[in-house]
Write a structure and sequence with these properties.
By secondary structure, the protein is mostly helical. It is built from 16 helices and no strands. Helix 4 packs parallel to helix 15 and helix 5 runs antiparallel to helix 7.
Length: 300
């Protein structure tokens, strides 16, 4: 267990420190600018922008859920909220850098591409369902107000202190804001250490191998185990390296956004609609399994 913990931390430390700096940097961007960047609700471009925004925002899945619900309250379309929510949990800068250290750049890029496709397609489907009347529209929708991006960015840059002491303070603030991330990263490392210590590699490969049964079992495990996205990343890396099942690793990462009961219940309470909440796994899980199966088929 000590050897595994050292190996995992040695692979992740640089990503954690780098991401803490960028978390502090993101904290200096005005919220109005972020809302404007999301674009007009109910359009494919708006969903795409929400997907990219979810990719760039560095928060765990529970933190991103709070932001997504705030976007709903401010008038973002259902499709934008879902795209933002699905793209965000493990695609944050922190976890991207961590995954590069754990599984390498090619597989990390493949996972990001797969998750972005699922987020965009799911958001588009949700907006279509709203347009057809299958799902209720967001009652908080407002007229789209665009903010000039570059002038606002220039003004933001000019209004901030970029001296070394200020940057050090910004880094420290980003590190403090990442306490929840770090806690779940440590939890995930402990889980991986326990798995490697007590689960024989042959059994691990058989049960969670690159088969249809292994893929479904991985989906079931990820649905039942309430692990934050930061904690699931080391486990997903183990599924790829030890079980030789990249599709299972991708499924384990995505299942948190697709089947997490916390997200389902929060969606229900915020939107006042069971249909919207239950359509989250209904729309996303088939896509996750399809891409996971393709990764297992062509990536082993």
């Amino acid at each position: 267990m000590l050897h595994t913990s050292y190996e995992m931390v040695n692979a992740m430390w640089w990503g954690i420190l780098s991401a803490a700096f960028f978390v502090g940097l993101l904290g200096r961007i005005p919220r109005e600018l972020i809302m404007s960047v999301l674009g007009r609700g109910g359009s494919k471009t708006g969903v795409l922008r929400a997907t990219i925004a979810g990719l760039l925002l560095d928060l765990c899945n529970h933190g991103i859920l709070m932001v997504a619900m705030k976007l709903y309250e401010r008038g973002a379309s259902i499709g934008q909220v879902m795209a933002f929510l699905i793209a965000s949990p493990w695609n944050s800068l922190t976890l991207t850098l961590i995954l590069i250290g754990l599984i390498g750049l090619p597989w990390t890029l493949a996972f990001i591409a797969g998750s972005l496709v699922i987020a965009w397609v799911s958001g588009w489907i949700f907006d279509i369902l709203v347009e057809r009347g299958t799902l209720p529209a967001n009652p908080n929708s407002q007229d789209f107000e665009k903010v000039d991006v570059w002038p606002t960015l220039k003004a933001t840059w000019a209004s901030n202190d970029w001296s070394l002491p200020a940057l050090a303070k910004m880094f420290w603030g980003g590190l403090k804001e990442s306490k929840m991330v770090l806690r779940w990263v440590v939890f995930g490392v402990v889980l991986v250490a326990l798995i490697r210590a007590f689960v024989p590699e042959d059994i691990f490969s058989v049960w969670f191998g690159a088969t249809a049964g292994g893929l479904l079992l991985t989906l079931l495990a990820a649905s039942v185990i309430e692990v934050c996205s930061e904690g699931s990343s080391p486990i997903a890396a183990d599924l790829l390296t030890r079980a030789a099942a990249p599709g299972n690793a991708f499924t384990f990462l995505m299942a948190g956004a697709a089947t997490d009961y916390t997200e389902v219940m929060v969606l229900k309470d915020t939107t006042k609609s069971w249909k919207i909440a239950l359509f989250l796994p209904l729309v996303t899980v088939p896509q996750v399994l399809l891409i996971g199966w393709l990764m297992n088929l062509y990536g082993v």
